[in-house]
Amino acid sequence: MSVSQLAKEVKESPTLRLNETAARLRDKGEPVIHLGSGEPKSKVPLDAILACSAKLKTADIRYTPTEGIPALIKAIIRYTEETYHKAVAPENVCVHAGAKQAVYNILMTILNPQDEVIIPAPYWVSYPEIVKMLYGIPVIVQPEDGRFHPRIEDIKEVVGSYTKAIILNSPNNPSGEVYTAEFIQEMIEFCEEKGIYLIMDDIYQKLIFDGRQLVSCYDYAKDDSDNSRLIILNGISKMYAMTGFRIGWSIANKKITRALINVAAQNTSCPSVVLQTAAVGALEGIQSGVESLRQTLENNRNVMIKELNAFTDIRTITPGGTFYCLPDFRAYYNDSIALCKFLLEKALVVTVPGVEFGMEGHLRLSYCGSIKDITEGVRRIKWALDPESPNEIYIGDRKMRRDWK
Ligand SMILES: Cc1ncc(COP(=O)(O)O)c(C=O)c1O
Prior knowledge:
The chain has two domains: 5-43 and 288-401, Alpha-Beta Complex (Aspartate Aminotransferase, domain 1); 46-284, Aspartate Aminotransferase, domain 2 (3-Layer(aba) Sandwich), CATH 3.40.640. 40% of the residues lie in helices and 14% in strands. It contains 13 helices and 14 strands. β13 and β14 (398-401) form a beta hairpin. 46% of the residues are buried. The mean pLDDT is 94. The structure holds pyridoxal-5'-phosphate.
């Protein structure tokens, strides 16, 4: 059976694959610890559940306008006002089936074949793959060794006549790095000057630690016109722990949004009305769950970093947000895929190889699970890697023997 060249070239999603591996092992009764997960474990807000149950009970479940139901667009406008201090019009907003689809639809709307999209590493795995699926060219910018924050001069150096867009994601998946306000300001000014689209993926913006203040990119945008090339992506997946609801949105100038709606109309018609209604419930309901998730994650982050710091040869940059960190394991292994397989096989711990995020020699570890999983997961990793570790440990009720150097 032949598949398209494009389909052959698109990489499998490593996180979804790992979720399946972990589930399979768990089904077999293996005491697997999942430090690869990309979704918070807290419950979906009650207001979301009530809203979508009420909608379901009407038994009147139809298509919606492609851009989303008016109530959700209104809720997104309110969120944007409260979070970014920016008034946007309904014509600037489009709802998508998740922020992932927002990335896809936006890039489909602005890219021509061979257009370049600059993506600072470490990056969310899907950006380069989506760019390639649209016949664009991802241009990866590596940070200085030992850092995760991109440098403006490195980005400027790769900008050329084919550069169409730059994607920034802060707080960053996979490193948890929060970009400085100065950097964001400089990027906005630079993109405005050069006429480059700046896509800000703000999906983790509420999950920031250590008293950091949220940076509103609109504070630095001088171009407030209908030609502004600043595009914001956001969604309910992370802040409300609603990954399964698949609702995200984009805010862009009216012309782009109009074209985007045509693209989306031929793609999915519209996201499900039931799930859009749930998103209205979440955005308009009681917000205390977001803060309590943030606090839990900050506490988990502290535990994860303390455990990792007990490892002398592992370098970890403390994340300022999200629920990930990206420790450097190069003292033990350069090949992160091999390391990931080794840890799964020998210690039953799921991690994600850094190479998938453009950062070889690192592993992405999530701390959105329980404190027990974090401490036990890192204990097992340490046991598997540290030659000074005891020969045997118990994993669950199974005695594991170290038969490697
Ligand atoms: C940086 C980033 N953007 C977007 C997404 C996708 O979010 P959604 O679940 O809304 O598609 C993710 C999910 O992991 C992410 O990490």
